[in-house]
User: Fold these one by one.
Assistant:
Number 1:
Amino acid sequence: MDILAGLIQTAFLAGGVLALAALGEVLAERVGVVNLGVEGLIALGAMSAVATVVITPHPWLGFLVAMGVGLIAGMIFAVATVIIRANQVLCGLALTYMGMGLAATLGKPISGSPAPATFQDIHIPILSDLPFFGRAFFSHSLLVYLIFLVLPVALHVLIFHTRHGLNMRAVGENPAAADAAGISVMKMRFWYVSLGSALAAGAGGYLTLVFVPSWSEGVVAGRGWIAVALVIFAGFRPINAVLAGLLFGFVTALGFVGQAHNWPIAASILSMLPYLGTMALMIVPVLAWQRMRRLMAAPDSLTVPYFRDQR
Amino acid sequence: MSYRLQRMPVAAPSVLFSARVLSVILALLTAAAVLALSGKDPIALGGKVLSSTFGSRFGLEDLGLLFSPLLYCGLAVAVGLRIGAWNIGAEGQFNLGAFAATGVALFVPGPAWLLVPLMALAGMAGGALWILIPTLAKAYADVSELITTLLMNFVALLLVYWVATGPWLDPSGMALATTARLSVSVPYVWGIVHWGLPLALMLAVGLAVMFAYTRWGYEVRIGGANPGAAAYAGMPVQRHLILVMLMSGAIAGLGGMMEVAGTVGRLQGGISNNYGYLGIMVAVLARAAPLGVIATAFFMAVILNGGIVLQSQGLTTHTVLAITGLILFYAAIVDEVARYKLIPTTGEVTPKGAR
């Protein structure tokens, strides 16, 4: 029982990175832009968050700086993909390389040392003291509740229950129609891609200020790519994306528990689980849930740049 | 007379070539500006890179050793791009090739003249095996190969790390995280440069000929440019896709075999050294043309060697990754901008599509 509570606790902790990054990618992909730079954005955010708390020990400041760096990087990406309308796959890969390379170069002096200030778990009266549930669900930092409760619900309402959300989805599905209806396709895409990038870099800040309290070059370890894959699996829906992130947090947690309890499997093999699991989640649903495909389909104009004179 | 901008469906090849060169120059200028801002002298550093790369035979031999894996990975990605498949997993296939070749060298007894070709075959099989699932998923379930091939990279890296520190660890106890030195190696052709390099160059020429002059190459190119039209014309697009992607994996795997059996001599974690990721840039800059890959892989080898030279100046090898990203970024932008053309407007007739 105690193992299970620890598993769930770690699942939230580890899944938060994927969930937040996936939420950012949902925003970008809903307006029709695929951002493959998530891995680089997480690296940038993770490094700048630690660099900030090294200078001044305020975790919230570190998190905000990470998001700010992500916003700027996202705006550069959006200038290239939305305004100049360059190839999104190439620009995304370039952003990943630049982010990882820049984070490793600038973060070299702080690489490997623990972050001097991190987010602390908040103690909720009564709830945190419950047996089992207290440890599994109510022993987390504020960010965990933000990522798993507040943000997904807010984004769900925004995307599916407001007029603005309808406009957003119109831009992703049929930009020509949205344009004709008087929605500025470029503005919508530019800001949601930038905002999504800020969330992805925020996931990096979460990674180094909550989950692994230290920056090093390999700390991101493909989480950005897993997040991109989760968005597809989640059918481009924020609540599903967070649940998928939690599922993968659980898979990651299994690896940790396995190591801690000396299961007779090598640590490297256990570390493969999230990647293999993502592969399975990408392939199996396509084969198994044919009827769900329409509901879970990608926005119609995903990766297609919009040229007004070619509609 | 006034002018207006018109976006063309494709840019002229000559414009595209200068666009590529321009993006590289822009990226190097940006990197130089960043270096200058951080208080380093970019011109002196550049001179140091060039002199230590081309100024001595040792430098040139080192360059050859970097050139070879970049060629294999660049060709692997380029071959995939020809049919419209993004093989982001060359890194993993490279590792698997090295892994499979090491397995043969460690556990199959035999003379070198038999073992080395056998290792090359094993390396190719390993690379192809590593892209098999993404290939089938793309061909039959339309699952994006971009992400599946990439995810397999992490699994491959972990696998190699695991065998090199666990089951296949050097039994002599001298090494901490590598296998024993392989008993056979790829023969040398020039100094420490082994036969992997000339073989890769021959492979590039062979592929260029295949794409340009055979029916298969023609069908693959059409299948990549317009799958619908290719299928309508009766070409077996799906069969070509599967074969081409497996080929792509096999080429990367062969690169891994050459690396472990020619350059490094033993299997260790991180043997792929980002070659697979750099290979993407090599292929993209070459516009997926095998002969172009020779030029861009050579250029990338110079940059990579520069990064190693500059490590003593406080830069990490990751700086090279950042510069690579910058080149890729500019290349994507300049590619799009190159499609625009200034057209004089006569004022009377508005051409179709203009506003």
Note: The CA atoms of residues 28 and 192 of chain A lie 6 Å apart.
Number 2:
Amino acid sequence: MLEKFKVSLFLAYKYLTGGNKGITIFTIFILTLVFLQLVLISAILGGATNRFNDLMIDYQTGNIVIEPKEDTEYISDASRLTSKINALPEVTGVSARIKGVGKIIYVDKSVGATVIGIDPLDENTVTKVNSAIVDGDFISKLDRGEIVLGREISGGYGALMESKSLGGVKVGDKVNLRIGSVNREFRVKGIYTTLFFLVDSSAYINKKDMEDILGVQDEAHEIAIKLNPGEDEEEFKKKLMGIGINEEIRVWREFAGIVELLTRTITQIGNILNLIGLLIAFVIIFIVIYINTINKRRQIGVQKAIGIGSNVIVASFVLQAIFYASFGMFLGFFAMQYLITPYTITHPIQLPVGPVILSLSNTEALFRAALLFFATILASFIPAYMVAREDLLKLIWD
Amino acid sequence: MIQVKDLKRTYVVGKVEVHALRGVSFGVEKGEFLAIMGPSGSGKSTLLHQLGLLDTPTSGEIVIDGVDVIGLSEHERTIFRLNQLGYVFQEYAILPELTALENVYLPSMMMGKKREHYLKSSTDILETVGLGDRLHHLPRELSGGEQQRVAVARALVNKPKILFADEPCANLDTESSRQILELFKKLNKELGQTIVMVSHEEWHKKYVDRIIYLKDGMIEKIS
């Protein structure tokens, strides 16, 4: 068995080194591109997923969110709980929020929105909404009667759902906020966009204003917690439960339903594109090996005549194809890992959800490589087998 | 060494049956240098292909060194060819990507022999055929006669029981042809190599022990 493999390897090596260099280089180049296409989709998807996750953590939930117990509308004594959590060493920041679902009205247009009442200083320790301002300023601790709108509410600034927005509210304009039966006028202090429509469909006001509207004091609908980099969220959740916090404690992923949906959709599109890439690789390898075997018909016949088994001959062509694919994959992986990915760190790809840095896990790269490897073996085996099983006299003389 | 009995080979070309061999019987002794001669279309090459297990006869019997080779499976025929037989074809049927030495040791490599063993035996046989100074040359760097001598060396490297040669001088000039035939004669006389050769050149007769003349797929005479 080993000696047969050695002969196959020897023949494959001689065909490669003695054969047409141009064809070898062309085939490797094409397979490098195919491998890049396979992993690039995966890497963009990985990068986009990271971007979505970052958007959730940086602009919406932080790492952990505490919500009221079931059948309870508010977390009471919010400032005491906030101080308690803030004292924990794993914590970067804590923000207690009061949310009101209502209507924002501007002239003759109105938009339904979730308005979040925050302490701006606390909120800035948890999220980066203050840095996403595209016009005006974020609200400050002492501001009253001021509101910051996401671009999907204000309209303009590239809003995706312009027709459902207020149609171009500007900083300084007055809008009315109606929550329940309470109607208050607010001055637009700033407009923000994270480029992610879910986050951009909210509005922020000072917590004091929201407390006035809802008629509550020191209560919160949720407490968002930002952890130090590298902290394990699940472990911290257990720690919170351990120190007697009886409210609902959730990790940010539990709020990422829509993001999951988007990720899965992109994954499926990616899989279809990968399938096309694999088919291209299959056809290229098939054609290269087919032409190779047709050109070597007489040689194959002679090899059979002198006692070289058909399986050894087939294996020699499959090994050639494996070399093409392996070299192509190596070059593709090298280009991806050391050229393209580092380049996107300094020059991120600008997608509608924002700048995306490619992210390719080794598992994903290995999986794509295995797929390409399998396609290569199959695509080379078929033409080689077709020729090698022919009658040897026909091979030699026809 | 070889016993052939009532050997027939019929090809079907479209709807026409071509009787290439119509019942051939003869024997070949060990150490004999036999020539198969006859006009074009007489069945010379067809007979050689049957004896050399390159083709399967329609009917008849071939026994080589006591083995009924007709009953062998395709895999067994491949092994038999590798271990027991050697071939020299009309054209220089050596692999263009391999050097002379590599072409020669390929069958030994296939047999699983050790590298040092097949390197030595291949070098020795190439020296025997007069190509000791051409070991690492590619076929395109060799003349037609030299390429055919590489093919002879490859055929002999595993010390086959029988060497089959199908018009080995067909593409060679007279001088190269003479060298090949003298080489065959030398191998036959000095090593006792059994050789079965197809030829249509009258002047080749002087090199062989016996000649089977074929005509229309049958033996016309043996001399």
Note: Chain A touches chain B at residues 2-4, 6-7, 10, 14-15, 17-19, 298-299, 302-310, 312, 391-393, 396 (CB under 8 Å).
